[in-house]
Design brief:
The protein is an alpha/beta fold and 508 residues long. 29% of the residues lie in helices and 24% in strands. It contains 15 helices and 28 strands.
Length: 508
């Protein structure tokens, strides 16, 4: 293990490594932080990148271990030494040079529907009981509630088994007719999928014999534990494994009219650097290969990623709790901003109300309607928004309307968001930006409850239960508020009833 130390400059703040650690950023002289991305053990996007508000940045092609204590960064590595660079004097200048040098934008971005309309995922409503009748009922409920049609994702449970990517014949007796009906209703249709193969299945035996599965350090087929049990894992470093997998997905598209796929799992934690693989790749490399495969399908969604920033992938934040706390709604802004600083521009916050299904199972009839509305408002001016739990089922009519209004607000900003997505594809600029990224030198380094949409829209959702006012910090200049009033910059208190998402447009 090799090590090096980097001392923090006065008032220096660092950002990076893992999207899920946005809640712990920035790293400062007062921080006590440690993370390891060799391989990445977290369930969200990561990159071997650190960025400083003083224009410095650190990069390695491979993962490394980092601690920040006592006013210094300590980096440890076994593969490639992380290198320290200087690029201007700001967070933005550091990001732009790192992007140009190591993960340049290539002009591609996901289909426009992702940025215009809400996405809908059947997970929270149906969980493991995905079935044709209830999927169609859910879709009709969306329209009946006043929400617009968009992209509908049928989640885990539609298939016969992991690796047997065929519709379950009992749960989905007429899948082609179902997809056609959803299309007629105005929806694009995506299916959940993963790189796992259930042991003792016909697919497992076939893939094992063809040596298309990851083998452990002793050469035995690796059986890895994940949230649904124990499975083998495709070795995507073998071109034949990718061909087999693509054949299954292409059949679903050709035979049933499916538009794309939610590519779940692929996390580095399900692989080992000591695995025996066709391409002799690392655990992080397998995550990268998963992203490259998914990029072949324009309608995609990912939750995990390592060095996938230049790929045209929809990157969702990992499942959040139905909670006001750190891993609930409070984490959406700092973690989504961190996605952008790691180069992942085409981002989606977690499912509105939270995507952790245990929160909904355990809280049952005690779900917090105010929290659900604030989740929707927080997502409304992010690049994408995704519903799963049905507002028309769990909310009062009055509060369900507020969720529709959040979706309508997003739709009204669709043109601006699409322009930002095109800019991200051309130039690599984040769509959602940290306040210090867009307005350097104004003391916004530790502001984590506001974000900037593009160049000139500051968004300040309410993230605390019961609050009907909130403090907002605006940069210097002239600002038009969402209620039509105009003010200068500085700190102010604004009214924020449950019906309002405070946002501000720079006009001078």
């Amino acid at each position: 293990m090799n090590e090096r130390e980097i001392f923090l400059l006065p008032e220096e703040c660092w950002y990076g490594i893992r999207a899920a650690d946005g809640i712990h950023m920035p790293l400062t002289a007062a921080s006590d932080y440690a993370a390891d991305i060799d391989p990445n053990g977290d369930c969200n996007q990561s990159a071997p990148l650190l960025l400083s508000n003083r224009g410095r940045y650190i990069w390695s092609d491979t993962g490394f271990h980092i601690t920040c204590r006592g006013g210094k960064l300590r980096l440890s590595w076994t593969k490639q030494e992380p290198v320290l660079y200087q690029a201007g004097e700001t967070l933005r200048s550091a990001y732009r040079e790192a992007r140009k040098r190591f993960f340049p934008a290539d002009g591609r971005f996901p289909p426009e529907e992702f940025f215009i309309y809400p996405q809908y995922n059947t997970w929270i409503e149906l969980m493991y009981d995905q079935n044709q009748e209830d999927v169609l009922r859910y879709a009709q409920g969306i329209l009946d509630s006043g929400l617009p049609a968009g992209i509908l994702m049928i989640d885990d449970g539609w298939a016969e088994d992991y690796g047997c990517w065929k519709f379950h014949p009992t749960r989905f007796p007429q899948p082609k007719a179902m997809v056609e009906e959803l299309h007629a209703m105005g929806f694009r249709v995506m299916l959940w999928t993963c790189p796992f193969i259930s042991p003792d299945s016909a697919e497992f035996r076939c893939l094992r014999d063809r040596k298309l599965l990851v083998r452990d350090g002793q050469g035995q087929t690796a059986i890895r534990e994940w949230w649904n049990g124990y499975s083998a894992v495709l070795d995507l470093s073998n071109p034949d494994a990718a061909v087999w997998y693509r054949g299954k997905l292409d059949t679903l598209m050709g035979d049933y009219g499916v538009d794309g796929f939610k590519f779940d799992a692929g996390d580095g934690q399900f692989y080992r650097d000591g695995d025996q693989t066709f391409g002799h790749v690392s655990a992080n490399d397998q995550t990268r290969l998963w992203g490259e495969l998914g990029a072949l399908y324009p309608y995609n969604e990912f939750r995990a990623g390592f060095r996938c920033a230049e790929l045209p992938l929809v990157q969702r934040l990992a499942d959040k709790y139905h909670s006001w706390e750190l891993n609930g709604v409070t984490s959406l802004i700092p973690n989504q901003v961190m996605q952008g600083l790691l180069g992942y521009a085409f981002t989606c916050p977690d499912m509105i109300g939270g995507g952790d299904f245990m929160s909904f199972l355990t809280q049952g009839d005690q779900l917090d309607e105010e929290l659900f509305v604030r989740y929707a408002q927080c997502a409304a001016l992010m690049p994408m928004m995704q519903f799963s739990a049905a507002p028309w089922r769990i909310l009062s009519a009055e509060n369900a309307v507020l969720c529709v209004e959040a979706a309508e607000l997003h739709l009204s900003f669709a043109g601006r968001i699409l322009d930002l997505a095109r800019q991200a594809a051309r130039e690599g600029e984040p769509i959602v930006r940290h306040m210090a990224y867009q307005f350097p030198g104004e003391g916004f380094e530790q502001v984590s409850d506001q974000f900037v949409l593009g160049d000139d829209i500051v968004v300040a959702p309410v993230l605390r239960k019961g609050e009907r006012k909130r403090i907002v910090r605006l940069p210097a200049g002239r600002w038009r508020h969402d209620d039509g009033t105009v003010s200068g910059g500085g700190e102010m208190t604004v009214d924020a009833p449950l019906s309002r998402l405070p946002w501000f447009e720079k006009i001078g």
